[in-house]
């Protein structure tokens, strides 16, 4: 790993954050797939630690939360050994800066929902309006994390019609039509006109487009949960700090990332900046 030049490592990272698979990035950069995986794990671990430290005292006004599905090794119904099955990524997004405030990778259950909401609450500097989907575990998780009446909390509960009539196997690839959404106040005084999960759902689409592991109907899915988590952390570091957001850029009149909009940095980062930050942190630990 240490023998790779900065330009080579930067090339690998660019391939990964643009949605390349491990093998594809290895072919494009002329490296071994094990080298690509090792760099992903190294930078993914740094991305998790760095953002855990820096995403604090955030002055968000509106936060949206949602979950996105994927799997490791095999889907739950096809799993044959321990460690395989469905895996979910909980995501909280600031509606104004588009900053990914917090995320959690794991099973979708009451324990992880509680841990996720506690982490979200710990990163905020002020009272917020919070919107989640209709997942029932959020009700207790939000109250425990924020305290009763500690946030203006509402759920957006979507209703769906019947599955479309299609011949053969085509039906399972066509999602049920969303026929409506019910805005349900839960705690505090949420502004119902601003109850939405549109931004976080758009961020979920970005995850599917920018991470090969989330692409449906391919063999690029994660084989280990740890590697899946590293890929998610790297994605969010790139999303928050390196990738200018079109809406923010249009408003500000210059290339602007969510981290810039949130006041966490004053410029767009490059992947070389990420590697320099990582090496600086490692050097500080050694000294």
Spell out the blueprint of helices and strands.
Layout: H1 6-17, H2 22-29, H3 33-54, E1 62-72, E2 85-94, E3 100-106, H4 110-122, E4 129-132, H5 137-146, E5 152-160, E6 178-187, H6 198-210, H7 225-242, H8 246-252, H9 258-261, H10 271-286
Parallel strand pairs: 1-4, 4-5
Antiparallel strand pairs: 1-2, 2-3, 5-6
Helix pairs in contact: 1-2, 2-3, 3-7, 4-5
What does this entry look like structurally?
The protein contains ten helices and six strands. It is an alpha/beta fold and 287 residues long. Strands 3-2-1-4-5-6 form a six-stranded mixed beta sheet, sandwiched between helices. The radius of gyration is 20 Å and the shape is globular. The mean pLDDT is 92.
Which architecture per CATH?
2-Layer Sandwich
Q: Whole-number radius of gyration?
A: 20 Å
Residue stretches low in confidence (pLDDT < 50, at least 5 long) are none
Mean pLDDT across the residues is 92
| Total domain units | 1
Helix content percent band? 40-55%
What are the key terms here?
287 residues; alpha/beta; Nucleotidyltransferase, domain 5; six-stranded mixed β-sheet; 10 helices; 6 strands; globular
What's a concise summary of this model?
By secondary structure, the protein is an alpha/beta fold.
């Amino acid at each position: 790993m240490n023998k790779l030049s900065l330009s080579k490592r930067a090339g690998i990272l660019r391939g990964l954050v643009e949605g390349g698979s491990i093998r594809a990035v290895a072919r494009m950069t002329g490296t071994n797939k094990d080298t690509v995986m090792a760099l992903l794990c190294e930078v993914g671990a740094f991305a998790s630690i760095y953002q855990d430290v820096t995403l604090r005292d955030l002055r968000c006004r509106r936060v949206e939360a949602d979950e996105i599905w994927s799997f490791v090794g095999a889907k739950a119904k096809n799993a044959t050994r321990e460690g395989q099955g469905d895996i979910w990524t909980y995501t909280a997004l600031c509606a104004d800066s588009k900053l990914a405030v917090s995320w959690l990778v794991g099973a979708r259950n009451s324990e992880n929902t509680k841990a996720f909401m506690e982490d979200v609450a710990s990163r905020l500097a002020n009272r917020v309006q919070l919107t989640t989907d209709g997942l029932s575990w959020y009700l207790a998780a939000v109250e425990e994390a924020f305290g009763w009446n500690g946030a203006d909390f509402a759920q957006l509960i979507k209703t769906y019609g019947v599955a479309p009539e299609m011949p053969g196997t085509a039906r399972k690839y066509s999602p049920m039509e969303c026929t409506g959404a019910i805005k349900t106040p839960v705690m505090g005084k949420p502004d119902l006109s601003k109850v939405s999960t549109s931004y976080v759902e758009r961020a979920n689409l970005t995850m599917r487009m920018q991470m090969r592991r989330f692409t449906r109907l391919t063999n690029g899915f994660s084989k280990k949960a740890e590697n899946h988590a590293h890929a998610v952390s790297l994605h969010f570091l790139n999303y928050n700090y390196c990738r200018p957001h079109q809406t923010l850029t249009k408003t500000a009149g210059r290339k602007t990332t969510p981290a810039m909009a949130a006041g966490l940095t004053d410029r767009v980062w490059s992947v070389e900046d990420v590697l320099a930050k990582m090496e600086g942190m490692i050097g500080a630990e050694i000294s």
